[in-house]
Design brief:
By secondary structure, the chain is mainly beta. It has 1 helix and 9 strands. It has one domain: Immunoglobulins (Immunoglobulin-like, Sandwich). A 5-stranded mixed beta sheet has the order 1-2-3-7-6, with no helix packed on it. Strands 5-4-8-9 form a 4-stranded antiparallel beta sheet, with no helix packed on it. It starts with a helix and ends with a strand.
């Protein structure tokens, strides 16, 4: 490993661990307060179930830092903004596509959450979701 590589690793911002909850009651977590020019941070994601069937509806809650203006949920080429309820608190729903009964493979979709500040700075976190 070169000196430049080591310096780049040391200078890289640390990503805080993402708290992921599946099922159960909707948690109440406070959004961490951040300055408007600080990088955005995704703190926690709650999904209404541990796994889903084709055609089912997923309820989603996201807690982000208070400087996040928008959280977008992307699945493949599609994306939608989650509703902002108060600083750092977002929610939304996603309906998994319907497939004919003879084409029901077990599959994993990747939910990609993009958090953006008002200045456009973004952070991305991915979450696999099992379909049966």
């Amino acid at each position: 490993m070169t000196r430049a590589t080591l310096l780049a690793l040391v200078a890289a911002p640390l990503v805080a661990p993402l708290r992921v909850m599946r099922g159960g009651c909707v948690p109440t977590l406070a959004a961490p307060v951040r300055a408007p020019d600080a990088p955005p941070e995704l703190v926690a994601i709650w999904l209404s179930q541990p796994d889903y069937g084709w055609g089912e509806l997923a309820h989603i809650r996201v807690v982000a830092s208070t400087n996040v203006a928008l959280v977008e949920l992307r699945v493949g080429p599609y994306g939608r903004a989650l509703t902002k309820h108060e600083p750092g608190q977002f929610s939304g729903v996603y309906r998994f596509p319907f497939l004919p009964p003879f084409v029901h493979p077990r599959y994993t979709l990747t939910f990609r959450f993009v958090a953006r500040t008002a200045t456009g700075t973004a952070t991305v976190r991915e979450l696999p979701v099992a379909l049966h």
